Amino acid sequence: MNMRVMKNIIYILLAGLLFTSCLDKLPEDAIPADKAITTVSEANQAVIGLYSSFLSGALYSGALSIMPDIQCDMAYAINGYTNAYGDVWRWEILSTNANVESVYGSLYGVISSANFLLDYEDRLRRTTTDDDDLDRLDQYCGEAHMARALAYWELIRLFTKPYNEATADTDLGVVITEHYNQDGPLYRASLRESVNFLMEEIALAEEMLKLDEDYSPSSHGPLYSSEYFNEYVAHALHARVALYLGRWEEAASESGKLIDCGYYLLSSASALYSGNTTYFDYLWQYDEGTETIWKIGFTPTAYGGALGQVFFNYDFQSVKPDYVPAKWVLDLYDANDLRADTYFASFTTGHTHGLQWPLLVKYWGNPNFTSLNILHTHQPKVFRLAEQYLIRAEANAMLGKYTDAAKDIATLRKARYANYSGTPQMDASTAMQIIEQERVKELYMEGFRLTDLKRWHKGFVRKPQAESIKSGSSLKVEADDALFVWPIPQHELEAPGANIQPNESNR
Predict the structure, then answer these.
(1) What tens digit of pLDDT does each residue of 336-377 get?
(2) What is the SS3 assignment for 285?
(3) What's the DSSP call for residue 337?
(4) How far apart, in whole angstroms, are the C-alpha atoms of residue 376 and residue 390?
(5) Which residues sit opposite 190 in a β-bridge?
(6) Could you tell me which of 69, 66, 71, 80 has the C-alpha nearest to residue 466?
(7) What's the sign of the alpha-carbon dihedral 228, 229, 230, 234?
(8) How far is residue 111's CA from residue 28's CA, in Å, rounded to a whole number?
(9) What is the pTM for the complete model shown?
(10) Tell me: the pLDDT tens digits for 224-273?
(11) Where are the beta strands (DSSP E) in 275-362?
C-alpha cells in the first residue's frame, strides 16, 4: 500500500505465508504468544499485512469483481475464447471450481489477518499508556474490524440465500471465526447470526474510525481516492448492506452521510480534466477521482490481478477477448450518456472471425502500469459515490418517496450526460425499472449484477449475439435458481474437524 507497505516488505511476505489458508490452521502455523504483537508499532505492521491481503487477484482485482457479472447477462463469451470462467458462464459451477475456491479462501484470508491483530487488542490496551499510541491503536483495530466486515459481507452475499427476515433463523449463514486459532468444530451460523455479527463489525468500524473533530481537507488532505479505511468507508459498506437486507430507511440514511458530507464529489463526464480527458475518464484511466471512497492501492512492485485481461487478452499485436459486452447493455446508453465513451470503444478483434465490437476500455489498464508492460491492471475502486446515489434512490423508491429518488438519479445523470435537465418521472410502476437500468449503466462489470438479481428475485434470458459461443448463449435462468448462491468449496466440507453444511448448489 504505497508508503506504508514499502516500510516493511519482509513482514508482508511473512503475512502472505501465514494467511493463505481458508479456515483451518496447522499446528505449526500457530505463533507463540511472546513472538506476536507486543507494541502498537507492531500492530501497525499487522495492519500493513491486512491491507496487503486485499491485493489477491481472486478478490477485487479479479474474480470477485467480474465473475458475478460474467455469470449473469452482462457479457458474452465469443468464439475463440480461452474458456476463462467458462463453467461460470455456462452455469455449470461445481464445488471444486477453482475461482470459487480462491474467492472463498482469500476472503477468509482477510478475516484471519484481522483476527490476528484483534486477538492482541486487549493485551495492547493493558500495556499501552501513551494517549497517542492508544489513539493509533483505535485506528488500527478499527481498520481490522472494517476489513473483517467487508470480507464477511462478500461471503454472505455470495454464499448464502437472499436475506429473508421470516427464515433468517433457519437459513444457513457463514462460518464465523473471531480468532486466529479458532477452537472447536467449524460450522455455519444461521443467516441472522451472520448478519448480526456483520452489523456489529460495521458499527465498531464506524466508531473506531471516526475522523478527528478538527479534520478538514485543507489541513489534513482530501478523503477521496483513499487507500485506507475511515468512518465513511464503513458508512458506505453499511449503506450497501442495508439495501441488500431491505432496510430502506437505514440504507437511505447511511448513503446520505456519504452524499451530504462534502468530502466526495461525482466525477464529471463532461468537464475536462486535461486536454480531451474528462474527470470521469481520468477516474477510470488513472484510478484517481473525487468520487472514490476507497480503492485498493497498487504500485508497480505490489499489485493484484488484471481486471481487463479477459476483455482484451492483448498480446502487443491484437486483442482476442474472451468476453464482449452484451448488446442489450450497450443499447441502454443513449446518445447523451457519456459513460458509453468512457466504458467502451470499438475494436476489430484478432480472432479468425474478426469480430468488430465495443470492448470494455474501462479496464484497458492504468497507463502508469501499461507503460511498464503490466497490462489491463487498475486499482479497484471498491466504493464510489455514484453507488451511494443509486442506493439512496432505490431505498427512497421502496419507501414511496419517488420525488427524492428521482432527484438522486437526476444528479447522477447530470454528472454523466452531455446535456441533462429536469428529473425522471418516477412512480410505483416505473421507479425500479429506471433504477435497475441505471445500476447496469453505472456499475457495469464491478460485480453487482448477480447480487442485484438475487435480491430482486429475478432471473434472466440470454439470446445469441454476434460470434457468441453456442454453449451458454441460449440460456434461461429462473428467479431464485440455486446457483445464485455459490457452492461451498468441497475441500471446506471435507476438512478434518469441520461440520460445514453445503448449499443447494453443491453438486
Answers:
(1) 999 999 999 999 999 999 999 999 999 999 999 999 999 999
(2) helix
(3) B
(4) 27
(5) 172
(6) 80
(7) positive
(8) 19
(9) 0.92
(10) 999 999 999 999 999 999 999 999 999 999 999 999 999 999 999 999 99
(11) 277-278, 292-295, 323-325, 344-348, 356-360
